[in-house]
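User: Before I run my own analysis I want an independent prediction to cross-check against. Here's the chain; please return only the structure tokens and, at the end, one sentence I can use as a sanity check.
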Amino acid sequence: MAELSSPVEPEKRMRTRSPAYPFINLETAIARAKLFYDKETRNAANVNVAAKHWGFVEGSSNGAQTVAALINYGLMDDEGMGEKRKVRLTQSALRILLDLRPDSKERAELIRQAALAPKIHQQLWEKWHRDLPSDAQLRHTLLFEWPTRFNENAVDTFIREYKDTIAFANLYESDTVAPEVKDNGGGEDEYVPKVGDYVQWETRGMLQFQEPKRIREISSDGAFAFVDGSYTGVPVGELTKEKAPLAAITPNHQIPPPSLKMHIQEFVVPLSGGSRAVFQWPSSLSKEDVDDLKDSLRILERKISRSTDERADLTSSGSLAQS
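Assistant: Structure tokens:
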């Protein structure tokens, strides 16, 4: 007797995975950041503990999705992996929560920046700004015309989340978002990067450049700077002005050719959710250096694989807990 094919198999093969987007809107994300702050203040906490602060079962998918959303909005940072993974509120989140001044422009600006932090939010805002099409047309575009198409089961949820977030951030009142506000301790004017400045990039408390790099270009919205030796935009709010390195100063104080400065090679891998992996190495390497790097990359590959396996186990255990 001929075996009948299952009618659900074609549907499975054609199922579309939507682009990454926040599980909750920004207003809800800030409320959950406040719940976390009420329990932990500025301290880091295990992701399972954070989930309990929000009323979720340990290891639940809702807790993991909330963490992902807060990270996506720039309200949380994480460190570690698996059972040792911890989260803490970012400086932007703390300033949003603790700035109680009525009509604070700084707080309003930080909220607008958070609203456009998710990559998919940036893309929609750049395409339409305040002039969104009808829900029906927006849905059609995301389902059939968007570069990474949405799943029909997720698109309506995303549209509602995006519109709620944009409205909460009052972005309909302004087409522009100022560069990230950076805390300078009060008193001094905020640093505004300019082409030709030498800068250092600090993120999550770590310096990213071996020595200051020269800005060669700034994005049209003023939010990102592009430095010599890299094609990746750097958030201007994470830059500080520095003196030019000695190797970059010639006797007549002219900026030397780029070849004299580009001694650090960089390879950037864009990842989902707007994050990225950055690999840097000196242009001049000995054979021993090359062998060491190859060995290190093999170790890194194993670490990444273990991280993926641990996250998969965590998700699986969360699904079992919910069931």
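Sanity check: The chain has ten helices and eleven strands.
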